[in-house]
Amino acid sequence: MNSPVAMTDREDALAASRREVEELRAELEETNRGVVALYAELDAQAEQLRKATELKSRFLAYMSHEFRTPISAIRSVARLLSDRVDGPLTPEQSKQVGFVDTTATELADMVDDLLDLAKIEAGRVEISPAWFEMVDLFSALRGMFRPVLHNPSTALIFEEPEGLPKLYTDDRKLSQILRNFVSNALKFTPQGEVRVSATRSGEHAVRFSVSDTGIGIAPEHHAAVFDDFSQVDSPVQKRLRGTGLGLSLSRQLATLLGGHVEVASELGKGSVFSVTLPVLVPTQDPAGPE
C-alpha cells in the first residue's frame, strides 16, 4: 500500500501540474486574443491603405483630366502667336512665346505621365498584345522624333534590327518606354549621339537599349533613377528640369509586359538605359498565340 505521505506528494504534484496547465492555457488565450487583435489592426490598416491609394489614384486621374483643357488652350495660343497669325513678333516676343510653348508641352507630358501612373496603380491598364516587326517600331519612333531634333550637335541613330524574331507584346507600351528613354537621353546629351538598338537576350527575350554620350549618372544615383519624381543632382539637371516620372512609368510598364529595365552609366561618360522583354508577353487571353 502507498503511504499517506507518498499519496500527498502525488496529489501536490498533480495539483501543481494542473496549475501549470491552467497558467499555460491562460497565457495561450491571452496570446490568441493579442494575435486576433493584431490581425484586426493589420486588416484595418490595409483597408485604410487601399482607400488612400484609391483616393490618390482618383485624385491624380481627375486632376490630370482637368489640367488638360487649360494646357491645350495655352499651347494653341502659343502656336497662333508663333505662326504670326495676328501680326509679326519682335525677337524678344518670339523667344518668350517659345518659352511658353516649351513649358506648356512639358506640363502636358507630366499630366500624361501622372494619368498613366494613376491608371497603373488602380489596375486599370490593359495589355493589348499583337505580333509586330521591330523594323516598323523603329521606323515609327524615327518619325516621331524627327520634328523635335533641334540640336545639330546631337545625332539620333536607330540601328537596323537584324536576325530578330517578331514580338508578341503591346507595341504601344513598348514604344512609350523607348520614347521616354530617347527623350531623356536627348535632353542630357548636349553633343554626340543617342543610339537605339535591339538584340537577343537569351532564347526567349529581346533587349532594347538606348545609349548616349551625355553627362552620365554617378553610381550612387543608379538605384533611384527609376523612382517617382527622381531627379539626379547635377548642374545640367538643374537647368533641364524634367517631370521625374518618365523613367518610373517605364519601369512599371516594363513590369506589366513581363520584363524589366536597367541602367548602366558613369559620370561624364554617357548612359545606357535598356528594357528586356519576352518575345511572347505573358497573357491569360485564350485567344493569344499558340
Key features of this structure:
single chain; 290 residues; alpha+beta; Helix Hairpins; Heat Shock Protein 90; 5-stranded mixed β-sheet; 53% helix
Care to describe what's here?
One of its GO terms (molecular function) is phosphorelay sensor kinase activity. It catalyses: ATP + protein L-histidine = ADP + protein N-phospho-L-histidine. This is histidine kinase. The protein is α+β, with helices and mostly antiparallel strands and 290 residues long. It folds into 2 domains: 1-125, Signal transduction histidine kinase, dimerisation/phosphotransfer (DHp) domain (Helix Hairpins, Orthogonal Bundle), CATH 1.10.287; 130-278, Heat Shock Protein 90, CATH 3.30.565. It has 6 helices and 7 strands. The chain has helices at residues 4-82, 91-121, 134-145, 171-187, 235-239, 246-256; strands at residues 130-132, 154-158, 167-169, 192-200, 205-212, 260-265, 271-278. Strands 2-4-5-7-6 form a 5-stranded mixed beta sheet, with helices on one face. It has a two-stranded antiparallel sheet with strand order 1-3. Helix 2 runs parallel beside helix 6 (246-256) and helix 4 runs antiparallel to helix 6. The longest helix is centred in the first third of the chain and has 79 residues, at 4-82. It is elongated, with a radius of gyration of 30 Å. The model has no long low-confidence stretch (mean pLDDT 83).
